[in-house]
Design goal:
4-stranded mixed sheet; alpha+beta
Length: about 200
């Protein structure tokens, strides 16, 4: 069988198994390095993930971790490191506005207004070994064990994320909840920005 552009010379190999190992390693060297890894791992632009791109990065492998760390704009914040009182920051802010009679609406309506008017911001988070990016005002989706899509909106308060799930079929936005503990690691692996 002709091998185009390649000449193999084998010196003193003891068994046919050794020849097979040699050819397998030679084949691995010839395979294009970039074809074995996802394209986003090697992107050079500093733009966030857009529609259709996954927004998470798996850092389980050491070789992928080095490249992923190089691409991250900021150090990822561990979700488990948030203090428990961070959940109440927006609630106390809303209460202060109500006391001053500056806000004539309920808590969830005020959070919806803040979501629409809030400043554009992004944060890189880490939950166990999954590193991902969330953006204020964006809509993301994850897929559960059953494969069904779960859409949710994100708003940030000083890098602390709040999420509100959506039901597009019935045009319903559910109440806002604090992000820590909402998603499993497997769900975050499917995280994707919708718009």
């Amino acid at each position: 069988m002709p091998m185009l552009g390649m000449e193999v010379v084998v010196f003193g190999l003891q068994s046919p198994g050794t020849v097979r190992v040699f050819f397998r390693s030679l084949l691995m060297i010839l395979i294009d390095f970039y074809s074995r890894y996802p394209r986003w791992l090697f992107r050079t632009s500093q733009t966030p993930a857009f529609q259709g791109r996954h927004a998470c990065r798996n850092t389980i492998r050491a070789e992928g971790q080095h490249v992923a760390e190089r691409l991250m704009l900021r150090q990822a914040i561990d979700v488990a490191s948030f203090p428990k009182d961070r959940i109440l920051v927006l609630f106390f802010e809303w209460q202060a506005h109500v006391r001053r009679h500056a806000v004539p609406m309920g808590y969830d309506a005020w959070l919806d207004q803040r979501y629409l008017q809030g400043p554009a911001a992004a944060v890189t988070l880490k939950q166990k070994r999954v590193v991902f990016e969330l953006m204020h005002g964006a809509v993301f989706e994850v897929r559960g064990k059953d494969g069904r899509r779960r859409l949710f909106r994100v708003q940030l308060e000083n890098d602390f994320p709040y999420v509100s799930f959506r039901d597009p079929a019935n045009a319903v936005n559910y109440p806002w909840v604090a992000f820590p503990g909402v998603f499993t690691q497997a769900e975050l692996m499917t995280l994707r920005r919708v718009y």
